[in-house]
Amino acid sequence: MNYLKIFALFSAVALQSCVSADEDPVPAPPITGSVVEVKVGGATEPNQVWIDLSDYEKPSVNKRTDWDLGFYTGDGFHVVINSSLAMTVAKVPNKTDIKTVTEADVATLKGSIMVGTFDPANMQYIDHPDGNFLTQTSGIEPIKENDAENPVYLLNLGRDIPSSDNIGPGSVNLSGAARGWKKIQIFRALNGYKIRYADVGNTTSYSEYFIPKDTDYNFTFFSFNAGMPVKIQPKKKNWDLGFTTFTNEVFTAPGVSAGSYFFADFVVTNTLNGVGVYQVTAAGNLDQAYNSFKLGDVDQSKFIFNDQRALGDKWRTTTGTADNPQPHVYADRFFVLKDAEGFYFKLRFNTMKSEDGHRGTTNFEFDPL
């Protein structure tokens, strides 16, 4: 629990002592809001930034390439891939021994399991973008109790962060060199998981590591480069918003999927820990609509708790409009957020570019309700 919420808790206790037994205590929200500069890192957007609105001055920042897999720490055994690198994964047919998988076994898969092919079938190779990995039928299937039932997977490690930030105004460059491939196999272990992994061409050996569950976090993250678990997201109660690149579903027309696609300037919400968001569209002047919005205006029926893309890309346009052809922040909307501890906030975005027009410089403001 951070300092603003600690203050709120003591405030609530103090207030409760001043009211009679017939009166309900009044909850005390965090004290004040602020303007937040999000350190995404420029037009290659190298960073993932995790922010708790009640402790916004202490964001957690990591490179997108710092991790590869996330191992769920709750009930059940589920594994996610790194969406911020456009990673994909597919089951190797008819294989249950990682050492027997060869390049010949995966040659056809390598031509299919990638992002941005504009084929709806490639959705099966990613985690479902809504974040509901507990029930998804794509990506890595739930880890079985019987070791023999856990298949070998081919993992496309996606794209590296480009080394150069020499990118024109209004543009991004998210995809550097291909990071290669791994074959992996995952099993259950006591209070955790066991992973085996190797380069595809290695048919004589593999690396093996035990990955523990730590229930203070949503996931235990693992890096092949480090060869061990790494800290990425803050503790599950200590973040509301994640600023990141993102593998999403794209549509050519309403209801017509074109499969997976890689997005810049994306914001996910911590739905796994009960954070909800909804959009408010201003009928007139945005400043007036935002400033006048109070706690009593919150519409509980509009909160989205089951899709981490509830804020997503809805705050900006990357293609521009007829009046403003450059990428820009929408000037007709703001958002309402409810965090896991029941505090409410309103927030709106001010910029997605630096003063010289370069992407990857995000600024938003928020106020508690």
Automatic annotation (TrEMBL):
Keywords: Signal
UniProt KW Signal keyword: yes
Domain of life: Bacteria
Signal peptide: 1-21
Alphabetical list of PROSITE patterns matching this protein: PROKAR_LIPOPROTEIN
Name recorded for this polypeptide: HmuY protein
Matches recorded under InterPro entries: HmuY
Organism for this UniProt entry: Chryseobacterium elymi
